[in-house]
Amino acid sequence: GKGKLLWRVDADCRPYILNLDKSILCFRDDEPGPAKVAFDVYGFNGEKTKSMPVNKELVDWSVSANEKNIVLALEGGHVILIDGTQKTVTWEADIPGDVVALGASSENPATVAVLFNKKREKEQLGPAVAVFSSKGDIRFQAAVSGRFEELSISPSGSTIALYGNSPYGQFLVNLKKDP
After folding, report:
1. 3-class secondary structure for the chain?
2. Beta carbons of 104 and 112 less than 8 angstroms apart
3. Is the peptide bond before 109 cis (omega within 30 degrees of 0)?
4. How does pLDDT run across 23-82, given as a tens digit for each residue?
5. What pTM did the predictor assign?
6. Based on CB atoms within 10 Å of each CB, which residue in 1, 3, 10, 172 is the most buried?
7. Greater confidence, 120 or 62?
8. What pLDDT sits at residue 31?
9. pLDDT mean over 96-118
10. Is the separation of the CB atoms in 143 and 126 below 8 Å?
11. What Å distances lie between residue 65 and 19, 46, 83, 143, CA to CA?
């Protein structure tokens, strides 16, 4: 069969399709230096409907399983939770280190988990996980031993999994919040 080009946009970004509201998020995490925009939003017709301005480099991003929450990590440990439907900021917070990976639950508003390399001034203290409440307060923070690169959070926000690969082997850690 044959396909047909519906539209094309010259864009230096990574696309993520949101089926819930028929839009495409175009994340600008590969731009060098401080970004002016974290992502653009395009309709399925190719029309740009919104941009999310930022003043630091986009380090990582994640979209919740139900597509209702978007979480961004900017350089310097700045974390932003965005309402995935309205594309507006729910809360912003800072962590004491550099973000490695993050995720958002499907709750409304979301629980956010962040894997980061903890710092004190210029001293590296090692990997840690911070869990933010739906209001943006740190509910839980703990050091984790090992080298981790990926984080996954369950839709309910009750379970967090970390994955790491090092010369000493591969690791999977499962964290669960107390009831």
Report:
1. CCCCCCCCCCCCCEEEEECCCCEEEEECCCCCCCCCEEEEEEECCCCEEEEEECCCCEEEEEECCCCCEEEEEECCCEEEEEECCCCEEEEEEECCEEEEEEEECCCCCCCEEEEEEEEECCEEEEEEEEEECCCCCEEEEEECCCCCCEEEECCCCCEEEEEEEECCEEEEEEEECCC
2. yes
3. yes
4. 999 998 766 655 689 999 999 999 999 999 998 889 999 999 999 999 999 999 999 999
5. 0.88
6. 172
7. 62
8. 64
9. 94
10. yes
11. 11, 24, 13, 26
Adjacency order of strands within the sheet including 159-166:
150-153, 159-166, 169-176
- Give the C-alpha separation, 176 to 174, whole Å: 7
Beta bridge partners of 66: none
Backbone phi, psi, residue 90, to 5°? -90, -50
The residue assigned the tokens 């060098």 is: 32
Mean pLDDT score across all residues of the chain: 88
Calpha distance 51→9 (Å, rounded): 15
Tens digits of per-residue pLDDT, 83-102? Answer: 988 889 999 999 999 999 99
> Is the alpha carbon torsion for 46, 52, 57, 58 positive or negative?
negative
Task: For residue 111, give both structure tokens.
Answer: 């629980």
